[in-house]
């Protein structure tokens, strides 16, 4: 249930995002696509809503799923410095303060409010979360929401996730799990697999051998296996969302 340095390593990809900036429940949000009936809310990792990789992923989701994709700013405008992260200058980054300002308790009501607004606007809604966003989309998919806030969730290498989050989910779940992950631990992976296999919910667990936490969003395309993992992770999320957001 922790955040550590492996959550902060990463590389920028090539390409230019094609979306637009709007407001959602008073917060800045990156929007891409124009489907009026199906939407995806992508909750990013600690690099935040403005990180190019996240916006490029949203563009892929919007285009390939035929949905409107939203990437809200859930960090109140704060952005961790990429230059320090890339140089692994951990001592110069106030990660503890950042996490205190963006704790689960602080951000959960805002995340729920944005999902409710998108549910009302579009009807069908899927949620995708990587690292920090992992716990959040599990909470969006919780059984406590009646009617459900989202139709399905995809979670990539989650952080801050608890066994209670896994136990409480009530919508179809897809897990994208790199093999080497000190945050989404072997114990949590086992609990996820055992719990969701018995839940009666549609469940898809994708194992990514030989790659590390965060590679599905911030992998180094020059490192063995990471480019292929990024592509496979994107394709898996697209296929999963299509199952539950497609027109009847």
From TrEMBL:
Residue ranges occupied by any Dienelactone hydrolase domain in the UniProt entry: 36-243
GO molecular function: hydrolase activity
Pfam family of the protein (one): DLH
InterPro entries referenced in this protein's UniProt entry, alphabetically: AB_hydrolase_fold, Dienelactn_hydro
Name the record gives this protein: Dienelactone hydrolase domain-containing protein
Protein's organism: Cylindrodendrum hubeiense
């Amino acid at each position: 249930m922790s955040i550590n340095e492996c959550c902060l390593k990463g590389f920028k990809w090539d390409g230019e995002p094609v979306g637009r900036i709007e407001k959602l429940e008073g917060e800045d949000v990156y929007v891409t696509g124009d489907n009026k009936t199906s939407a995806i809310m992508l909750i990013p990792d600690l690099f935040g809503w403005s990180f190019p990789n996240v916006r490029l992923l949203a563009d892929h989701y919007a285009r390939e799923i035929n949905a409107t994709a939203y990437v809200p700013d859930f960090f109140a405008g704060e952005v961790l410095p990429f230059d320090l992260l890339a140089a692994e200058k951990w001592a110069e980054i106030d990660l503890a303060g950042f996490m205190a300002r963006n704790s689960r308790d602080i951000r959960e009501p805002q995340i729920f409010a944005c999902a409710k607004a998108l549910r009302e606007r579009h009807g069908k809604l899927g949620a995708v979360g990587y690292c920090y966003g992992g716990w959040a989309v599990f909470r969006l998919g919780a059984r406590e929401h009646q009617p459900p806030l989202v139709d399905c969730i995809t979670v990539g290498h989650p952080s801050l996730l608890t066994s209670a989050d896994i136990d409480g989910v009530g919508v179809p779940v897809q897990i994208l799990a790199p093999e080497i992950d000190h945050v989404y631990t072997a114990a949590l992976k086992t609990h996820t697999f055992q719990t969701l296999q018995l839940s009666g919910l549609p469940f898809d667990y994708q194992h990514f051998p030989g790659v590390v936490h965060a590679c599905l969003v911030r992998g180094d395309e020059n490192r063995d296996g990471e480019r292929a993992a990024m592509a496979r992770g994107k394709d898996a999320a697209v296929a999963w969302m299509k199952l539950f957001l497609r027109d009847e």
